[in-house]
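Changelog-linked ticket: NDP example.
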Amino acid sequence: MSYNVFIDGEAGTTGLKVASRLALHPHVQILHLDDAVRKDMSARLDMIAKADVTILCLPDVAAIEVATAANGMDANAIDICLIDASTAHRTDPEWAYGFAEMDAAQRRLLASSKRISNPGCYPTGAIALLRPLIKSGIIPADADITVPAVSGYSGGGNAMIALHDAGDLAPHLAYATDLKHKHVPEMQLYSGLDKAPLFMPSVGNFYAGMLVHVPLHASQLAVPVSASAIYDLLRDWYADSALIAMGAAGANDLAGQTTMAADALAGRNDMELFVFANKDESQFWLTARLDNLGKGASGAAVQNMNIALGIAEDTALV
Ligand SMILES: NC(=O)C1=CN([C@@H]2O[C@H](COP(=O)(O)OP(=O)(O)OC[C@H]3O[C@@H](n4cnc5c(N)ncnc54)[C@H](OP(=O)(O)O)[C@@H]3O)[C@@H](O)[C@H]2O)C=CC1
Ligand SMILES: CC(=O)N[C@@H](CCC(=O)OP(=O)(O)O)C(=O)O
């Protein structure tokens, strides 16, 4: 069985990465649009009509524009399947949030959805750590949560890559100090928090990869819990996932290792979760490590496409 897939925004950072993954896909043929008309709405709608799935790799405004136009062609949302990599539809109830590992119901929802919103790279890490602990009653929903993180500069797309290549990007740049980062709403909603987490993103002098941290004091938790109990909960939550795994053999068990490289999973589509604690387990340090362009973007888009097409979720991803 072969499926036609159109990547709207194929020339961008995310679009190119999606294309390179799909080039290895045994069941997919990419529908390419001539460069001269890649921003022409009617040419793009023709492609969308021909495709079994369209992956939007566009800035928010352009994604909203094309999704609105596609809705006009497809009032019942029956024939057209859109997967949007932008932030535009992530908390829109008309769109299914494309994080299949959130729970079994989410995977089923995605399998029957025609409008799928790909998660943000940072929220992928934060939700993966927070949601199981909140749903299990370990972290109270009204907890004050802080999420420090560092990303490779490809996270900022072509514009930030150009800044880096021109030598104009600081080696380590903290940003979104107005506490209004666009990822906060989806992080809060899908983690199950009653209030916004304090999100502290930064970008480092490396191309791809990221670390998303959740520091926790035992006093923030609803119940006393050990690091190994947190580790076991996360391990069991993702036991059926081909793309999320624990990054070490056991809580705090990294054979004495006390550092984590942010770019260790660059070029990959999976995500690793870590649980560290101090000796008396009064402080915990949880971390998700992923590639912002992989599980944080194009890998997740291909995973969602596989689910929407009813084929094995990790096809072309492992
Ligand atoms: N980079 C990352 O790590 C991640 C990015 N994303 C999201 O993916 C989306 C794309 O980001 P990214 O690939 O980084 O951005 P880029 O800037 O690298 O690429 C965007 C692409 O879209 C094209 N484009 C812009 N406007 C239009 C339009 N009206 N019609 C057709 N094409 C258009 C651009 O062309 P041109 O350059 O000629 O204007 C460019 O090729 C964004 O919404 C981003 O938030 C999601 C997860 C991670
Ligand atoms: C380093 C950097 O600038 N990162 C981007 C997020 C990239 C990303 O994955 O966000 P979307 O999926 O929402 O596009 C930012 O903070 O805006």
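Closing comment: Example verified and attached. The chain has a mean pLDDT of 94. The first strand starts at residue 3 and ends at 8.
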